[in-house]
Amino acid sequence: MEAVIFDVDGTLVDSERHGHRLAFNEAFAALGMADHWDEEEYGELLNITGGRRRLATYLVGRGLQPAEAVCLADELHRVKTSRFRAMAVAGAVPLMPGVRRLVSSLRRAEVRLFVATTGSADWVRPLLDHHFDRSTFERVVTAADVARLKPEPDAYLDVVRRARLKSHRVVAIEDSVNGLRAAHGAGLPCLVVRNDYTGPEVVGAELVVSGFGPNALAESGVAAPMPHGMVTLDTINALAGTRPPTDGPRHRRKLFAARRRTRS
Ligand code: XBP
Ligand code: MG
């Protein structure tokens, strides 16, 4: 295995239920709106990737005209992003249990590490800087870097292309079905680490576990070592190459198409 590409929200960090959701609600209040997303409603809304798009879809569902919804969503998302960035910088967005141990062990083994997220660059960088030194992730791809968000594969294809990786030597780590679909769309095997917002649709992942461990359980997928219930380098290594290599001409066409979209 040459490289691991980490998702951010729900994978590296526990950021949705008590992070983004609170920032969205603070944005509603800051604009004098009575809207409030409770934990259950937010779990449903998470099916829409990208906070701006999540807001616009929600507002159209509340009866706003699309053009008005997009405009208000932009204004709300600016406030939300500023609030969430402040939370990230203040250390209020914790790592998922087991992440620091795993990232350190992958770095010791000189595995190349990357990030591919739907989140906004304005908070992703400060959040990663709060938890990791700048040299940890060779490239960080955010919503600003791609034309299409997850479940489209663009973020993963961007990493694979720019870092000149061989997809059969790369493993993606995700927490959601949208992320799983994005990784698979880029031809990458995917380890899904479940959290309390992960739905049942992730069963198609090469491996689904209940956490990074210790004492985590393998729920479905390939047989992979998990000493003391921990996701380790060997766990992830067992997934590399478990999807048909996609570095042939068809894959290159998809890469070039993704590059064209990114540049347009
Ligand atoms: C999860 C998302 C993001 C966050 C909110 O991203 O879909 O939209 O929910 O962040 P990931 P923004 O791919 O890391 O799981 O408001 O910045 O979009
Ligand atoms: Mg995620």
Polypeptide structure, described:
- This protein is of the alpha/beta class and 264 residues long.
- Helices cover 44% and strands 11% of the residues.
- The chain has 10 helices and 7 strands.
- Helix 8 links the parallel strand 4 and strand 5 (190-193).
- Helix 1 packs across helix 4 (66-89) and helix 7 crosses helix 10.
- It is globular, with a radius of gyration of 18 Å.
- The structure holds xylulose-1,5-bisphosphate (XBP) and magnesium ion (MG).
- Magnesium ion (MG) binds next to loops.
- The site of magnesium ion has 7 residues, from loops.
Short description:
With 264 residues, the protein is of the alpha/beta class.
Distinctive features:
264 residues, 44% helix, alpha/beta, 7-stranded mixed beta sheet, binds xylulose-1,5-bisphosphate, single chain, 11% strand, binds magnesium ion
